[in-house]
Amino acid sequence: MKERGLFIAMCVLTFIVFIVSLAVGKASIPFSEILHPTHEMTHNLIYNFRLPKSLTAVLIGIALPISGFLLQELFKNPLADPSVLGVTSLSGLGVAVVIFLFSLLGLDHWFHNSWLIILAAFSGAVLALLLIGSFAYRVRSSASLIILGFMLSGLASALIGVMQYFAPSEKIKSYLIWGFGSISGLSWEQLGIFFCCVVVGGVISLFSLKGITALLLGERYAMSLGVNLKNQRYLILGVTALLTASATAFAGPIAFIGLAIPHICRSLLKTGDMWKLYRWIVVSGVFTMLFFSIVVEIFPFGTLPINIITSLFGAPVVMSILLSNQQQIR
């Protein structure tokens, strides 16, 4: 009952932060105007700028922590997450192909197609997870698997560098700006596509929780309960690819959120109940991204890229994982 009360309080606090994110910005809006704006300018500011930004933060806060949680449970490694395992980098490679190669081929107008961007990012994410999945069968050491993920990231960075070398300067600038990450600027059409991807991925991810719970007691026990380990791995990899690709396509490569949030929730709750852990990870991820969206807006020297904020938050968490779980990540 105590945990349920805390969870309800966290949900209420998250809703409050959501409302605050609509009010805070370069131009502050009174809370009385949030739900029923009386001026056309205020209405336009909320529903065409602030609300899409806050909803984007919510969707990222759902997609990336779920991805990190599923990968950590699949690989039994607290350092597993889309950015560390190279998934985010290869998603970025897919977007780089669209930005750079399409410009060289005279197909610039395709860059503004939301489906093409998400397909490019999704293809990169699928490729990364297929490679990591094949590595996982051959490499027993979790540390070696993490190193292979870093090598994938390095390879993706090298390929992106080659394309940047031959690309026009304006396209390089476009990709660099995309690489900083942003939760603003999405149209309602793009937000709708993002929403559909996250909802589909989130719903499908729920079907993996039973198998993950069984795997806590070992693969043999899970198989005795009728869990198909092969299908379980494909399910997790597919869901992770969809969630990571959609977040990367629409918001850029957001680092550390997928790694830090599951680790923090696991450390605080200390529970083997995957359903309980799952819902805390979702709410905590949404709360964190909404909080960061406020920090981005109130920074006194201009608007900071969201990736800088998440890195400042996530890097200390990664260091704490390395220091406190040395036996677990070997």
List keywords for this structure.
single chain, 330 residues, mainly alpha, ABC transporter involved in vitamin B12 uptake, BtuC, 14 helices, 77% helix
Assign a percent range to the helix content.
over 70%
The count of helical stretches stands at 14
The secondary structure category is: mainly alpha
Mean pLDDT: 81
User: What Rg, in angstroms, do the CA atoms define?
Assistant: 20 Å
Q: How would you describe the oligomerization state of the chains in this entry?
A: single chain
Q: Kindly state the number of beta strands.
A: 0
CATH topology: ABC transporter involved in vitamin B12 uptake, BtuC
Tell me the strand percentage band: under 5%
Give the end-to-end Cα distance, rounded to a whole number of Å.
37 Å
Tell me the name of the CATH homologous superfamily.
ABC transporter involved in vitamin B12 uptake, BtuC
CATH architecture: Orthogonal Bundle
Number of domains: 1
Q: CATH class, please?
A: Mainly Alpha
In this structure, how is the largest beta sheet organized? none
* Net shape: globular
- Outline the low-pLDDT stretches: none
Describe this structure in words.
The protein contains 14 helices and no strands. With 330 residues, the protein is mainly α. The chain has one domain: ABC transporter involved in vitamin B12 uptake, BtuC (Orthogonal Bundle). It starts with a helix and ends in a 6-residue tail after the last helix.
